[in-house]
malate dehydrogenase
Amino acid sequence: SPACRVAPPRPSVEREKAVEELTIHTIPTAVLGASGGIGQPLSLLLAISPLVDELSLYDVVNTPGVGADLSHINSKAKVTAFLPEDGAGLERALTGCDIVVIPAGIPRKPGMTRDDLFKINAGIVRDLVTGVAKFCPKAFVLIISNPVNSTVPIAAEVLKAHNVFEPTRLFGVTSLDVVRASTFVADVVGGCPTQYTVPVIGGHSGETIVPLLSQISPKTDIPSDKLDALVNRIQFGGDEVVKAKDGLGSATLSMAYAGFKFAEALLKAKTQTGIVEPTYVYLPGVPGGEEVKKAIGGDIDFFAVPVELGPSGAVKATNPVPNATDYEKALLVKCYEGLKTNIVKGTEFITNQA
Ligand code: NAI
């Protein structure tokens, strides 16, 4: 029509700024570390999810390329990408976000434990969560960066220091342990991995990962001669990937899947009830109660348990510890010891700087 040939009036600088601000203020989901091995496939899954309207990508490198690439996908998500730009990039990436997923930081190489990553990743998580506290203090924060056992307490301390800590909104992503557990259970007893739900509780590294194989749903018996090896594989499954990648990092694709699964559960929980996912949350003194106190002489403040999710985040934590078998209770004692050390290390990283 003739109207189509009429050039629209050129927007004034003020109007461009207003539109830009409006765009920033409606971005609900951010990925920090979006150019990495996890960040890229995770961003892809979020970009194609019908639940994501807008996706904000942030990294210290390569986000313009990753963002341009994803923005050509004909899904509804609007993708924007940011580099640091002396701090302004993080502010623009985070302002208005509802969900912030953080896979930023270095991954393991063969021979390294997750704790070996602390030196570098602790500072990265501190700085990024400081951005969350300043620019989107009400967002759900999903920490993937390792060591999760310590980086989540770091995030909590940063949020507390800014008076915006709300335990229902901070999550350590342990979904990969749960994904692995059902896969490895199916390897032992047969069937399709998706049919098994295995509560995996505690933390996210080695012996702090405690699969409760007596509570598999639907009820499944693991032959007793296979139990030790299966538990060990769930606890140290990440090492299989680190070894196979031979110096090129740790799990990225399975982690992107697991991280997306958790983010999607939170998005769904905004409108649906009854969504339960295991995650590492602030639960002072709850899971082990007196048993933990007896074992390690103190409380555990963070613990992974199945958590019911809702519009405000974590709604209700279930505590499967009382129903654990004696075999699992012995695993839990080792978990408490390691976890307590990891939590104190994370907390003190911030409190000692104050
Ligand atoms: P990667 O090295 O491929 O990617 C990390 C990305 O973070 C890079 O693009 C890097 O530029 C970026 N980055 C570094 N400093 C940053 C900063 N200050 N701000 C924003 N971005 C920054 O590593 P990968 O394989 O993606 O792993 C990321 C993290 O996830 C590691 O700490 C790894 O141990 C952890 N991980 C966690 C799992 C879990 O189950 N929670 C499973 C597997 C890995």
In short: Residues 32-33, 35-39, 58-61, 103-108, 117, 121, 124, 127-128, 144-146, 148, 173, 176, 204, 249-252, 255 surround NAI (CB under 6 Å). The radius of gyration is 21 Å. Residues 1-11, 21-27 have pLDDT under 50 and may be disordered. The first strand starts at residue 29 and ends at 32.
